[in-house]
Amino acid sequence: MREIFVWPFAIAVLLICWSESFAGEAALKSKNVIYITWDGFRWQEFFGGAQQTLIAKDAGVSDIDGVKQRFWRESESERREVLLPFVWKTIATRGQIFGDPAANAAAKMENTHKFSYPGYSEMFCGFADDKGIDSNKKFPNPHVNVLEFLNRRPGFQSRVAAIATWDVFPSILNQERSGVYVHAGPGPIPGNSLSDREKMLNEMIADTVMLWPDNQLDVITMQVAREYLLKHKPRVLFIGLGETDEWGHGRRYDRYLHAANRADAFVGKLWELLQSLPEYKDQTSLVLGCDHGRGSTIRDWTDHGAKIEGAEFVWSAVFGPDTPALGVRSDVNVTLSQIAATLATLVGEDFRAASPKTAAPLPGVISTKPAQ
Ligand SMILES: [Zn+2]
């Protein structure tokens, strides 16, 4: 009698343990990751919405009443929600946000240059290299980046892409060596079999007034990225937007706010699109971030760089089917260099195994251990 009861029980326990360990290894729902950056967008507006001292003529705002009506609200939570509704109504309630000083949680870059190439290199390669990466010139990045790593992993080959407003990304991501598809800057969409929408975008690219010699308008890059996604269904897609930085340098706080508001709407619409596509629905993670901050006074909010105090502080947000809804993370300090391993870990890959200098993923962004 004893044996009859004990053995089925023991086998059942073994089966449960075995299936649980198996489920633990393969439980990531996320198969794709989309990473979007807003160049030089300050944590002050990200967490606090429009800043009263900068809605001023000295910050380039001529229609003060118009900007106030659109972006000023009495409380900080209302202000940030009216500026970035997708971030604060959706990501903050269903995902995680890093870098809020009010929550005793700084997000900081490790490089000391505080400008774009070193910032993007740090976030994509997983570490700062102050000596080797010290300018915004178009030199090939010597370090392996996470997009390049993923592009070589089984199941990801030729399914990793970067589409960005700034024309230095082919160098930052070392397009030649990495083999990652990079479309960046003000030039047309390449290729012979373009869709009707891509052909129309190329007409607009040819006829749009160029505001900056090395940067495309965000709206064009957003649409180019959308078409790329629909046509090629990448598993890993980076979209780099740049107008927040350009209007900041141009001392146009009104347009800086408007650019951020449009970038937020773009992320919202993209998320909606992803949920309508079977390849992406419920199996895609989204990461938002920026490459550097800016100054904090009415004089230097326009600038960033080694001498600008506070421009080392950034922010980031993570959202997706494996990310616990912890909202604004408190009492946790993170660095820009943690983005690289985060992107890999969200699709079950370990970038640190291939690139030991890479910083650890952002803590707590996935609820299960990824398959090794
Ligand atoms: Zn800049």
Short key terms for the protein model shown above:
binds zinc ion; globular; three-stranded mixed beta sheet; alpha/beta; 372 residues
Give your account of this protein's structure:
- With 372 residues, the protein is an alpha/beta fold.
- Helices cover 40% and strands 12% of the residues.
- Strands 5-4-6-1-7-9-2-10 form an 8-stranded mixed sheet, sandwiched between helices.
- Helix 4 packs across helix 5 (85-94), helix 10 runs antiparallel to helix 11 and helix 11 (218-232) packs parallel to helix 13 (253-275).
- The radius of gyration is 22 Å and the shape is globular.
- The model is unreliable at 16-25 (pLDDT under 50).
Give the helices and strands, then pairings.
Layout: H1 2-25, E1 32-38, H2 43-48, H3 64-71, H4 76-83, H5 85-94, E2 96-98, E3 107-108, H6 116-125, H7 146-151, E4 160-164, H8 169-172, H9 175-178, E5 181-184, H10 196-207, H11 218-232, E6 236-241, H12 243-249, H13 253-275, E7 284-289, E8 313-314, E9 316-319, E10 327-328, E11 334-335, H14 339-346, H15 351-354
Helix pairs in contact: 4-5, 10-11, 11-13, 12-13
The chain binds zinc ion.
